[in-house]
Amino acid sequence: MKGRITALAAVLALALALVAAPARAADKPAVTLSASQAGTGGSITVTGSGWRPETLLMILICGRSVPSRGVIGGTNSCANADGRAVTTDAHGAFRRKLPVSEPPVPCPCVVHVATVTGAKADADAIFQVAGHAVEPLPAESAAGRLSVLTDTRLDGAGGLLTWFGAPPSRTLVFTVGNVGSSPVEDPVFRVGTAHGVFAPQWDEQQWHGTIAPGRKAQIKLPVELSAGAHGDYTVSLEYGGKVLAEQPWGVGRPWGVTVFWILVCLVVPAAVFRLGMAVVDRVRPLGPAGRAVRRRSLRLPELALRIPRPGASSSSSAPPMTSTLPWFTPDTDPGTAVNGRLSAPQENGPTTPTEGNT
């Protein structure tokens, strides 16, 4: 009884494996072409299956490439200007017409399909551009070869200076394994940064260390953009003339620079306006109110000089001060002398002797 149960379990496991094998094969991205050869100016239909649903793909014709070795030289070996983008359907399939154009490097050529966003996936189909030059591929070294074993990532974050336009910087982290027969010492990688559809700008960086055959190592390489850079960038990793990985990088806009210029546009005009108003206030002619203020400021010293100082003689040469009010005429002003007197004569008071009295 126990032997029958074991045999039944083995049969079920084998059946499940046979059913799952086609499913796994179907999940692998695949590309087929309507024609294996065409000339410049024509077009072919590219059909794909096994891709992730609702995924954006890029279709390119690339030279110096074979499916077994991939695209040697990366997208620099492809006709990027005539590429086409397509989005897979809910089942991970697509169908797209692609114009035929010559790549910038000789054939052998392939139609290269790769994901634009999300997890990296690609597939190649052999294609011959009629009339285009064909040259043998560069020899592949069997000594020490590196292969990327894990997905790449960018570590780090922007700071306050980046918010004000400082160069954004990250650290590209990935793990490589030596699949060759000899150790690799101090490998030199090329790190490229591309903005949008432009070609990447490459920078050679050397990693110090030795990777023995069959061993792996984690590599960390610095990546830096120019000051004020923002938008969608792609970081590419190349070794031995072959692009090993590509990593998207979304760089935020340096809003601090925008805020600074807004403040400058507000503060500078306000300062210029205040300076101009001060100059106008100094040079403009005075109105009636201003002239009255100026006259009063000039008269105050004159009034101060007319006030008699203590101890001064009454026989001063200064003219007597008289008050002239608007409701009195100069003849009837109480402050003026009448017949040489300042007041009326008293009726019952003593009289002064006259010249006639002796």
CATH topology of the domain at 2-130: Immunoglobulin-like
User: How large is the count of helical segments?
Assistant: 4
Approximate strand percentage:
25-35%
Low-confidence stretches: 5-26, 354-358
State the separation between the terminal residues, measured CA to CA: 184 Å
Which class best fits the helix and strand makeup?
alpha+beta
Average pLDDT level: 78
* CATH architectural group of the domain at 2-130: Sandwich
CATH class of the domain at 2-130: Mainly Beta
**SSE pattern, N- to C-terminal:** HEEEEEEEEEEEEHEEEEEEEEHH
**CATH homology superfamily name of the domain at 2-130:** Neocarzinostatin-like
* Structure summary, number of beta strands: 20
Strand arrangement in the largest pleated sheet: 2-10-9-4-7
Tell me, what's the shape? elongated
Main pleated sheet: 5 strands, mixed
Radius of gyration of CA atoms, rounded to a whole number: 50 Å
Helical proportion, percent range: 10-25%
Keywords: Membrane, Signal, Transmembrane, Transmembrane helix
Signal peptide: 1-25
Protein name: Neocarzinostatin family protein
Organism: Streptomyces chiangmaiensis
